[in-house]
Amino acid sequence: MQQSMQMPRPPLSLLGRCRRGLITFTCFCLVLGVGASANAACDEQGTCVEGGTWTANASLSDKARRKIAKKNRKKGDIDLTVSIEGGRGSVFVDGVWISSAPLEGHGIKPGRHDIQVRDGKAVLAQGVLMVRRKSSGVTITVPHG
């Protein structure tokens, strides 16, 4: 009888370990859906914002809103896009109803804005959106739930 002799595996080099770790990390991110949008930041409720800074469950006072609007009224508009995953809703910017979602390409001025997304009386997302002057556009994705 012939016995098959297995050769011992050589130890992995540092490069091999790094490569294997990177592949594992990449697969893990793809399974979780992380990295679908590299610049998007999500809050604990699942609201994701790309192209701006989002502060969840915050609001501006009327005085602060007027001051920011006066400062930025001569600046160019930035495109705002709002989508709701798996549902419908209404979009309010600075306390004013804008449109039902999905909203594509609505012009807003740079600066801070109160954003609220509702489905009837249920508030799906609420917070302050900070839009930079040099931003090309802002996308907000809200989970329906």
Note down, in words, how this protein is organized.
The chain has 145 residues and is of the alpha+beta class. It has a single domain, classed as Sandwich (Immunoglobulin-like). Helix content is 21%, strand content 40%. The chain contains two helices and ten strands. A hairpin with a 5-residue loop joins β1 (41-42) and β2 (48-50). The radius of gyration is 23 Å and the shape is globular. The relative contact order is 0.21.
Q: Helicity level, as a percent range?
A: 10-25%
**How many domains?**
1
CATH topology: Immunoglobulin-like
pLDDT < 50 runs, ≥5 residues: 14-37
What is the approximate shape? Answer: globular
By CATH reckoning, the class would read Mainly Beta
- Average pLDDT for all residues: 79
Number of helices, counting only DSSP H or I runs of 4 residues or more? 2
- Sketch the topology as an H/E string, one letter per element: HEEEHEEEEEEE
N-C termini distance: 67 Å
